[in-house]
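Subject: design request, 191 residues
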Protein backbone atom coordinates (compact mmCIF):
# COMPACT_ATOMS: atom_id res chain seq x y z
CA UNK A 1 0.00 0.00 0.00
CA UNK A 2 1.53 3.30 -1.11
CA UNK A 3 2.53 5.77 1.57
CA UNK A 4 2.42 8.72 -0.84
CA UNK A 5 -0.31 9.66 -3.29
CA UNK A 6 0.35 9.70 -7.03
CA UNK A 7 -0.03 13.49 -6.88
CA UNK A 8 2.78 13.86 -4.34
CA UNK A 9 5.01 11.41 -6.19
CA UNK A 10 4.47 13.41 -9.39
CA UNK A 11 5.48 16.59 -7.54
CA UNK A 12 8.64 14.89 -6.32
CA UNK A 13 9.52 13.68 -9.83
CA UNK A 14 9.10 17.26 -11.03
CA UNK A 15 11.57 18.43 -8.38
CA UNK A 16 14.07 15.77 -9.47
CA UNK A 17 13.75 16.90 -13.10
CA UNK A 18 14.07 20.55 -12.08
CA UNK A 19 17.38 20.00 -10.31
CA UNK A 20 18.84 17.49 -12.78
CA UNK A 21 21.73 16.65 -12.71
CA UNK A 22 22.03 17.92 -9.13
CA UNK A 23 19.21 15.64 -8.03
CA UNK A 24 20.28 15.62 -4.36
CA UNK A 25 19.11 19.26 -4.18
CA UNK A 26 15.61 17.94 -4.83
CA UNK A 27 15.64 16.06 -1.52
CA UNK A 28 14.58 18.92 0.76
CA UNK A 29 11.64 20.18 -1.36
CA UNK A 30 10.61 16.57 -1.93
CA UNK A 31 10.52 15.83 1.79
CA UNK A 32 8.41 18.97 2.20
CA UNK A 33 5.92 17.68 -0.39
CA UNK A 34 5.64 14.42 1.55
CA UNK A 35 5.13 16.33 4.79
CA UNK A 36 2.43 18.52 3.26
CA UNK A 37 0.49 15.38 2.40
CA UNK A 38 0.96 13.42 5.61
CA UNK A 39 1.61 16.22 8.09
CA UNK A 40 4.86 14.65 9.25
CA UNK A 41 7.51 12.26 7.96
CA UNK A 42 7.22 8.64 9.03
CA UNK A 43 10.21 6.42 8.14
CA UNK A 44 8.33 4.80 5.22
CA UNK A 45 7.67 8.21 3.66
CA UNK A 46 11.32 9.25 4.05
CA UNK A 47 12.42 6.00 2.42
CA UNK A 48 10.00 6.45 -0.47
CA UNK A 49 11.20 10.02 -1.06
CA UNK A 50 14.81 8.79 -0.99
CA UNK A 51 13.98 6.16 -3.62
CA UNK A 52 12.27 8.72 -5.86
CA UNK A 53 15.11 11.22 -5.55
CA UNK A 54 17.82 8.55 -5.88
CA UNK A 55 19.66 8.95 -2.57
CA UNK A 56 20.20 6.53 0.29
CA UNK A 57 17.54 6.14 2.97
CA UNK A 58 20.16 7.19 5.54
CA UNK A 59 20.89 10.46 3.72
CA UNK A 60 17.20 11.32 3.53
CA UNK A 61 16.65 10.44 7.20
CA UNK A 62 19.62 12.57 8.21
CA UNK A 63 18.25 15.59 6.34
CA UNK A 64 14.77 15.09 7.81
CA UNK A 65 16.27 15.07 11.31
CA UNK A 66 18.42 18.12 10.63
CA UNK A 67 15.79 20.68 9.59
CA UNK A 68 13.43 21.86 12.33
CA UNK A 69 10.69 22.54 9.77
CA UNK A 70 10.63 18.83 8.95
CA UNK A 71 8.85 16.70 11.54
CA UNK A 72 9.83 13.08 12.08
CA UNK A 73 7.26 12.73 14.86
CA UNK A 74 3.53 12.72 14.33
CA UNK A 75 2.30 16.31 14.63
CA UNK A 76 -0.95 15.79 12.78
CA UNK A 77 -1.52 17.39 9.38
CA UNK A 78 -2.23 20.78 10.87
CA UNK A 79 0.05 21.74 13.75
CA UNK A 80 -1.28 24.66 15.78
CA UNK A 81 1.24 26.07 18.26
CA UNK A 82 0.26 28.79 20.71
CA UNK A 83 3.18 30.74 22.16
CA UNK A 84 2.79 30.96 25.95
CA UNK A 85 6.09 32.65 26.76
CA UNK A 86 5.87 35.61 29.18
CA UNK A 87 5.28 38.44 26.64
CA UNK A 88 2.49 36.43 25.02
CA UNK A 89 1.23 35.15 28.38
CA UNK A 90 0.58 38.70 29.64
CA UNK A 91 -1.36 39.39 26.44
CA UNK A 92 -3.75 36.48 26.86
CA UNK A 93 -1.95 33.42 25.45
CA UNK A 94 -3.72 31.00 27.79
CA UNK A 95 -7.07 32.54 26.88
CA UNK A 96 -6.22 32.10 23.18
CA UNK A 97 -5.26 28.49 23.84
CA UNK A 98 -8.63 27.90 25.51
CA UNK A 99 -10.52 29.53 22.63
CA UNK A 100 -8.72 27.43 20.03
CA UNK A 101 -9.21 24.31 22.09
CA UNK A 102 -12.96 24.99 22.21
CA UNK A 103 -13.25 25.89 18.53
CA UNK A 104 -11.10 23.01 17.25
CA UNK A 105 -12.56 20.62 19.81
CA UNK A 106 -9.19 19.29 20.92
CA UNK A 107 -7.34 19.69 24.25
CA UNK A 108 -3.77 21.07 24.15
CA UNK A 109 -1.28 18.28 23.57
CA UNK A 110 -3.72 16.12 21.62
CA UNK A 111 -4.59 15.46 17.97
CA UNK A 112 -8.08 15.19 16.45
CA UNK A 113 -9.06 12.21 14.27
CA UNK A 114 -8.89 14.49 11.21
CA UNK A 115 -5.29 15.46 12.05
CA UNK A 116 -5.34 18.80 13.89
CA UNK A 117 -2.84 19.00 16.75
CA UNK A 118 -2.93 21.82 19.30
CA UNK A 119 0.13 22.60 21.42
CA UNK A 120 1.34 25.27 23.81
CA UNK A 121 4.94 26.05 23.00
CA UNK A 122 7.79 27.47 25.01
CA UNK A 123 9.44 28.72 21.82
CA UNK A 124 9.24 32.50 21.20
CA UNK A 125 8.27 33.03 17.58
CA UNK A 126 9.52 36.62 17.54
CA UNK A 127 6.02 38.07 17.33
CA UNK A 128 5.78 39.20 20.95
CA UNK A 129 4.63 42.66 19.84
CA UNK A 130 1.66 41.11 18.06
CA UNK A 131 0.52 38.81 20.86
CA UNK A 132 -1.46 36.77 21.45
CA UNK A 133 -0.41 34.70 18.48
CA UNK A 134 -0.03 31.20 17.18
CA UNK A 135 1.70 29.41 14.34
CA UNK A 136 -0.26 27.06 12.08
CA UNK A 137 2.29 24.85 10.35
CA UNK A 138 4.56 27.59 8.94
CA UNK A 139 2.08 30.51 9.01
CA UNK A 140 1.82 33.10 11.78
CA UNK A 141 -1.53 34.42 13.05
CA UNK A 142 -1.18 37.46 15.28
CA UNK A 143 -3.21 39.86 17.43
CA UNK A 144 -5.84 37.18 17.77
CA UNK A 145 -9.18 37.99 19.35
CA UNK A 146 -12.12 35.74 20.21
CA UNK A 147 -13.63 36.41 16.79
CA UNK A 148 -10.44 36.02 14.77
CA UNK A 149 -9.58 32.83 16.68
CA UNK A 150 -13.00 31.44 15.79
CA UNK A 151 -12.49 32.44 12.18
CA UNK A 152 -9.02 30.86 12.14
CA UNK A 153 -10.37 27.59 13.57
CA UNK A 154 -13.10 27.53 10.98
CA UNK A 155 -10.59 28.17 8.17
CA UNK A 156 -8.34 25.37 9.45
CA UNK A 157 -11.22 22.89 9.52
CA UNK A 158 -12.50 23.91 6.08
CA UNK A 159 -9.03 23.65 4.55
CA UNK A 160 -8.43 20.25 6.09
CA UNK A 161 -11.79 19.03 4.88
CA UNK A 162 -11.00 20.19 1.34
CA UNK A 163 -7.52 18.63 1.42
CA UNK A 164 -8.86 15.35 2.77
CA UNK A 165 -11.51 15.30 0.04
CA UNK A 166 -8.91 16.02 -2.66
CA UNK A 167 -6.55 13.35 -1.38
CA UNK A 168 -9.16 10.78 -0.40
CA UNK A 169 -8.46 7.36 -1.80
CA UNK A 170 -5.22 8.15 -3.60
CA UNK A 171 -2.95 6.29 -1.21
CA UNK A 172 -2.80 9.02 1.39
CA UNK A 173 -0.88 8.51 4.61
CA UNK A 174 -3.02 9.62 7.54
CA UNK A 175 -1.96 11.75 10.47
CA UNK A 176 -1.49 8.59 12.50
CA UNK A 177 0.83 7.13 9.88
CA UNK A 178 -1.65 4.74 8.24
CA UNK A 179 -2.09 4.68 4.49
CA UNK A 180 -5.21 4.19 2.40
CA UNK A 181 -5.90 3.36 -1.21
CA UNK A 182 -8.84 2.69 -3.49
CA UNK A 183 -9.36 5.77 -5.63
CA UNK A 184 -11.17 5.97 -8.90
CA UNK A 185 -9.14 6.87 -11.99
CA UNK A 186 -11.07 10.17 -12.07
CA UNK A 187 -9.92 11.02 -8.54
CA UNK A 188 -6.35 10.09 -9.37
CA UNK A 189 -6.15 12.65 -12.13
CA UNK A 190 -8.16 15.27 -10.28
CA UNK A 191 -5.35 17.39 -8.85
S1 LIG B 1 6.90 35.48 23.51
FE1 LIG B 1 5.37 34.83 22.18
S2 LIG B 1 6.14 35.40 20.22
FE2 LIG B 1 7.65 36.03 21.59
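Subject: RE: design request

Done. Sequence follows.
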Amino acid sequence: MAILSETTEARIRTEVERYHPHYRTALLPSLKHAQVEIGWLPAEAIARVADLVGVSHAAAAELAQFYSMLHTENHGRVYVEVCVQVPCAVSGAERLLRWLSEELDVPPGETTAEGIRLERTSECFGSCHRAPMCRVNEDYHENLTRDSARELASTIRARLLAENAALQGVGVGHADGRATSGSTSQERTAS
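The chain has eight helices and four strands.
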